[in-house]
Amino acid sequence: MTYSLMIHGGAGAIRAPERFSESLRRIVEAGAGMLACGAAALDVVARCVSMLEDDPLYNAGRGAVLNADGAAFCDASIMDGRDLSAGAVAGVRGPRNPVLLARLVMEKTPHVLVIGEGAESLGRAHGLVFEDEAYFVTPERLAQLARAKARHETSLDHAPNAHGKLGTVGAVARDQSGNLAAATSTGGLVNQMSGRVGDSPVIGAGVYADNASCAISCTGVGEQFLRTSLARTAAFFVESQGLTAEAAAQEAIAYLVRKVNGSGGLIVVDRNGRCGAARSTPGLLMASAQDGRIIVGTEGESIS
Ligand code: ASP
């Protein structure tokens, strides 16, 4: 395999998944085009996740769901499999592309995870694009929040009764040099309490990349992925047990369900460029590209 790429748009009970197929195809093709031209895996996952963040179909960046106070706070992470360098942000407001802010943390600071105003200041200092509240707080998001509040619930955007049409996003890639990278970005859970942070910005829970094993991006109920260190657990299955991406994804989801009855999914590209995905939810929106062969679908099922 000369290059491999997978992207996801969230897990859950996905109504009419074909609504996402054009967007998923456009984004995976853009990333595959970069990889075919020799781009680095790190640049490709940052680009793909930025494109997913710009599309209001997904629960990240522009389409981020609203918390209990009616505000959109974003979390994002990125990891470079060459040397395990990583960057993440949590509880940030305003950056158009939270994944690029996570990359700034990785490349411009000695830190891994920076939250809130400190992270926002870093972004402004480096000229990152910021948007005002109207960009994120759409009438659809407000209506979704009102429904969640009426039911007194906190939910995945794709939860069966959430009436949502968005999902956390992620990308994993192996470039032509054999380097791996992963990135994840989210608005969190609909109606989450102010200050709540899930797995997406936590290295080893919602994201992981190591050239010695694989690159992983997760989506689902963040607390369950945090408690099981799920991304690192999946990498362990590849590194120490020699499993393929597909087998490691299945094993990781089996572990998530066995340990905490968890709900979600993950995408994996291993060091040999094999792709794998698994879920415990009814659906997982995803697309993959391996040396020009593109598949767009929910896990196990093609939607276009
Ligand atoms: N994992 C995200 C969180 O818990 C939500 C999602 O994947 O949709 O914040």
Number of alpha- plus pi-helical segments: 9
- Rounded radius of gyration (Å): 17 Å
Shape: globular
Ligands: aspartic acid
Structural class: alpha+beta
Mean pLDDT: 92
Unreliable stretches: 161-166
How would you characterize the overall build of this protein?
There is one protein chain. By secondary structure, the protein is of the alpha+beta class. Residues 161-166 have low confidence and may be disordered. The longest helix has 16 residues, at 21-36. It starts with a strand and ends with a strand. It has one domain: (Glycosyl)asparaginase (Glutamine Phosphoribosylpyrophosphate, subunit 1, domain 1, 4-Layer Sandwich). The strands form 2 sheets. A 9-stranded mixed sheet has the order 4-3-2-6-5-1-11-12-13. It has a 4-stranded antiparallel sheet with strand order 7-8-9-10. 33% of the residues lie in helices and 26% in strands. Strand 9 (264-270) and strand 10 form a beta hairpin. It is globular and about 45 Å long. The chain binds aspartic acid. Aspartic acid binds next to strand 8.
Kindly summarize this structure in a few lines:
The protein is of the alpha+beta class and 304 residues long. The protein is 33% helix and 26% strand.
Keywords:
single chain; 304 residues; alpha+beta; Glutamine Phosphoribosylpyrophosphate, subunit 1, domain 1
